[in-house]
Amino acid sequence: MKTAVVTGASRGLGEAIAKQLMDKGIQVIGVARKDSDDLPSFEGKDNAGYTYRYGDLQDTAACANVFEELAEDIFTKADDTVYLVNNAGVVGPIATADAYSLQEWEAHMAINLTAPMLACSIFLKYAKKHNIQLIIVNVTSGAAERSVHGWSAYSTSKAGLNRYTETVALEEAEADTGNIAIAYNPGIMDTDMQADIRSSEPEQFQDVQKFKDYVTNKSLRDPMFVAGVLAEILTGNEIENGKRYAVKDYV
């Protein structure tokens, strides 16, 4: 059976991705600071189930141990493709660049950039050691490709993640390993992150009214739909290595 590790699987898009992958018959291991309320009892196709593993992505050293232990256990037993879905992320701090503290910067970059890079590095090492295909998905954002007032940290971390994804894809292609790295832009969804954005003050985030209007106009997509698109991409006929996929292209 194929196995997927999904970070931030306790709620929102991560939880939805876990459900959609289990519905495809893929065993899922969720890494988050707390367990999901729904996933432990969720019944996937062909008895695909869910396992929870505690992981605080702000704690880089501890996360390195978690990913190392997971990779060793998974790849030692694997006889089919392994998926790594780096979904966990934060949008805050939402403020102009002069208002950030060192602690806020460090926590943001640890979750949004360092943890995904660390997980990729460790999983690639074990995939090559055991000759098992690894497919990496790094969840990105449209903010990576444009400047947004109040989002200098978020835009920067996601832009860095995009470049990292493309570089990993390039390296794996040149080495002819069969491993794949892609980015996935889920667009705007009805999640807790959106609620956090809407609670911002206009001085911190000039576009706050636009995000409030998304609710009024019913423009927010259901995370299960967004996760379903990703599941179809991952289990389809061909995945384009290094590509930035976006849910808007499938609507």
Tell me what you see in this structure:
- The structure is a single chain.
- This protein has 251 residues and is an alpha/beta fold.
- Helix content is 44%, strand content 14%.
- It contains 7 helices and 7 strands.
- The chain has helices at residues 12-22, 60-77, 102-130, 152-175, 192-198, 208-216, 223-235; strands spanning 3-7, 27-32, 50-54, 82-86, 134-139, 180-185, 244-246.
- It has a 7-stranded parallel sheet with strand order 3-2-1-4-5-6-7, sandwiched between helices.
- Strand 1 (3-7), helix 1 and strand 2 (27-32) form a beta-alpha-beta unit.
- Helix 2 runs parallel beside helix 3 (102-130) and helix 3 runs parallel beside helix 4 (152-175).
- The longest helix has 29 residues, at 102-130.
- It is globular, with a radius of gyration of 18 Å.
- The two termini are 30 Å apart.
